[in-house]
């Protein structure tokens, strides 16, 4: 740690605990925890996933942001993009006077407001190598909250580049984390990366590797125009590949994509030479995996309806909703408790298929056994408020109060 770069916080946890509790604590969630994650209210049963909400990395990033405000009360504070993908948390930081730096028309973050006298918070997703160097050149104080799981992926991708392997990253090319991860491949001369979003895109790459697809190198240049390193040559740069992923992607899909790429490399180069041409490591973070596993268990136990709470732009939250949908269980992904409107009997939610916000009236219907989970960037108070609003919609608010007593 230096006077201008901090990665380990400021040891001010005790100074901010009261404010964190006031901003994010939920009595409803605490009662559910104490009662084995289940709560019966009148004819309704609520079942909370055993792993939900803030993960360690998000908890750490939020703590550091609050500590930074406490440490530098008189300085201007900025954060690159969003600290995490949750509107409620980001609004709290704005209320503390922290300014969010956005991107310009060129898609690059605009650092022109920042001076050497300011403090800039790097979010949990991290930033690209280029943006990090730009900030260091300005000379401002940097508070780096990059998640440790993300750093582990960066180390893997950097090693691929060092050893002459192209990094194939399963993720969303426009996501802050994936952009930062891809930039790690460029830390060595000749480093290359290619981002694939899903199995369909991965199959295009696999078929090209095996020489069995109809897509030419020019076709792939167009398909992956925004998802590859500069000067990427599909004939040259797919001979040795290493797989990594955005830490918040659906684990089963990441593993399946890695397996398909491995099979294709084996068919292309032969079993004995596979190790020289293909590397793969599961880089899904443990918190993402645990939340997906907890949802799977809820589905095994059986629910009529699953409510997933979290930002629409939160990758891990969207993937939790997609996981439920893939199992044939009705799911509603709401951004926060305000999406449930008891007075109108209406709900606003992000449709898993269209990925657009939709509304539905009389949405509760005959559902009585309701599962609840939340993305890794969703605070407990928004989970608790969701259950309160569901009960208000069902007309059992008084019964909930009694159940919590």
- Can you give the helix content as a percent range? 40-55%
CATH architecture of the largest domain, by name, is 3-Layer(aba) Sandwich
Strand composition percent: 15-25%
- CATH class assignment of the largest domain: Alpha Beta
Coarse shape: globular
What's the main sheet like? Answer: 5 strands, parallel
Q: What is the β-strand count?
A: 17
Uncertain runs are none
Q: Tell me the distance between the termini.
A: 47 Å
Number of helices: 15
CATH superfamily of the largest domain: 4-hydroxy-3-methylbut-2-enyl diphosphate reductase, catalytic domain
- Radius of gyration from CA coordinates: 23 Å
What is the spatial order of strands in the main beta sheet? 1-7-6-4-5
Number of structurally distinct domains: 3
From the 3D structure, determine the CATH topology of the largest domain.
Cobalt-precorrin-4 Transmethylase, domain 1
Structural class: alpha/beta
Provide the residue-averaged pLDDT. 95
Summarize the structure in short:
With 405 residues, the protein is of the alpha/beta class. It contains 15 helices and 17 strands. It folds into three domains: 150 residues, 3-Layer(aba) Sandwich (Cobalt-precorrin-4 Transmethylase, domain 1), CATH 3.40.1010; 92 residues, 3-Layer(aba) Sandwich (Rossmann fold), CATH 3.40.50.11270; 132 residues, 3-Layer(aba) Sandwich (Cobalt-precorrin-4 Transmethylase, domain 1).
């Amino acid at each position: 740690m230096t006077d201008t770069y901090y990665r380990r916080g400021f040891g001010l946890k005790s100074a901010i605990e009261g404010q964190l509790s006031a901003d994010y604590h939920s009595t409803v969630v605490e009662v559910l925890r104490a009662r084995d994650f289940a709560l019966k209210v009148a004819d309704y049963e609520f079942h909370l996933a055993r792993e939900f909400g803030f993960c360690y990395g998000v908890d750490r990033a939020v703590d550091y942001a609050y500590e930074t405000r406490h440490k530098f009360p008189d300085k201007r504070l900025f954060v690159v993009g969003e600290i995490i993908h949750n509107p409620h948390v980001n609004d709290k930081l704005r209320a503390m006077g922290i300014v969010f730096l956005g991107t310009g028309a060129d898609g690059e973050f605009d650092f022109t407001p920042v001076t050497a006298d300011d403090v800039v918070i790097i979010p949990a997703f991290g930033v690209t190598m280029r943006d990090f160097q730009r900030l260091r050149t300005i000379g401002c104080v940097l508070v780096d909250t990059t998640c440790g799981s993300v750093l582990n992926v960066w180390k893997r991708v950097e090693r691929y580049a060092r050893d002459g392997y192209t990094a194939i990253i399963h993720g969303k090319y426009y996501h802050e984390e994936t952009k930062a991860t891809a930039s790690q491949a460029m830390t060595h001369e000749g480093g290359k990366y290619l981002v694939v979003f899903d199995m369909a895109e991965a199959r295009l790459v696999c078929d090209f590797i095996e020489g069995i697809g109809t897509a030419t190198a020019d076709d792939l240049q167009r398909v992956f125009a925004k998802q590859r390193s500069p000067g990427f040559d599909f004939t040259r740069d797919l001979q040795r590949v290493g797989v990594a992923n955005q830490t918040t992607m659906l684990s089963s899909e990441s593993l399946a994509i890695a397996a398909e790429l491995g099979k294709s490399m084996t068919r292309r180069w032969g079993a004995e030479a596979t190790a020289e041409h293909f590397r793969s490591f599961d880089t899904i973070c443990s918190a993402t995996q645990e939340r997906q596993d907890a949802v799977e268990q809820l589905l095994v136990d059986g629910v009529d309806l699953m409510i997933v709470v979290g930002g629409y732009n939160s990758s891990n939250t969207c993937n939790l909703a997609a996981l439920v949908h893939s199992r044939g269980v009705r799911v509603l992904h709401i951004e926060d408790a305000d999406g449930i409107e008891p007075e109108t009997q209406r709900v606003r939610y992000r449709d898993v298929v269209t990925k657009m916000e939709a509304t539905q009236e009389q949405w509760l219907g005959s559902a009585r056994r309701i599962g609840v989970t939340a993305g890794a960037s969703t605070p407990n108070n928004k989970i608790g408020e969701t259950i309160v609003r569901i009960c208000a919609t069902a007309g059992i608010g008084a019964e909930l109060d009694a159940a919590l007593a």
